[in-house]
Specification:
Elements lengths: L1 E12 L2 E9 L12 E2 L2 E3 L6 H13 L9 E2 L3 E4 L2 E9 L11 E5 L7 E5 L1 E8 H7 L6 H9 L10
Parallel strand pairs: 1-7
Antiparallel strand pairs: 1-2, 1-4, 2-3, 2-10, 5-7, 6-7, 8-9
Length: 160
């Protein structure tokens, strides 16, 4: 079973909660929007501290500083049959235009023998909770409900 760790960064604007999400880079995700966004995250090894991995992956994928504060651990969620996602909540305000992602190399186009570099993350954005429910990979949507639980938001406000 693969495991990923990431940070769910949120802010409050005009009494609405917004979350900071990143869009996966590379040709597979190009042009995809619905269920194509994620919290900044990445895989970690069994002997690695998940929170430290979440911080490392956040920096690698965004080049931004991790907001100050004490991260609050959420219950891990299943992104797929093969991956569990461990996440921590932090409040902060980041500039999506300032991200600079690390890159990965892959053969493109397939079968061409040509290796190309792609950013791991090609963009970032703040989304309202309603927007985030549509944009997030399906397995990560549960993290939004956990965020609301952490913030003690009542159930009547959950679809803002």
């Amino acid at each position: 079973m693969k495991q990923s760790a990431g940070l769910l960064i949120y802010r409050v604007r005009e009494n609405s909660i917004e979350v900071f999400l990143v869009h996966s880079g590379g040709p597979f995700w190009e042009g995809k929007d619905i269920a194509a966004w994620s919290i900044p995250k990445g895989e970690f090894e069994e002997d690695e501290d998940p929170l430290q991995a979440a911080i490392r992956e956040f920096i690698e994928e965004t080049s931004l500083e991790v907001p100050e504060g004490k991260p609050i651990r959420l219950t891990p969620v299943k992104q797929s049959a093969h991956k569990d996602v461990h996440a921590w909540v932090l409040k902060g305000d980041l500039d999506p235009a300032a991200i600079r992602s690390n890159t990965f190399e892959m053969e493109w186009p397939p079968g061409s023998g040509k290796q190309m570099l792609f950013p791991e993350v090609d963009k970032a954005c703040w989304f309202s909770l309603n927007e985030a429910r549509k944009k997030l990979h399906k397995g990560q949507v549960q993290l939004l409900d956990q965020l609301l639980d952490v913030l003690h938001v009542d159930s009547t406000s959950r679809r803002d």
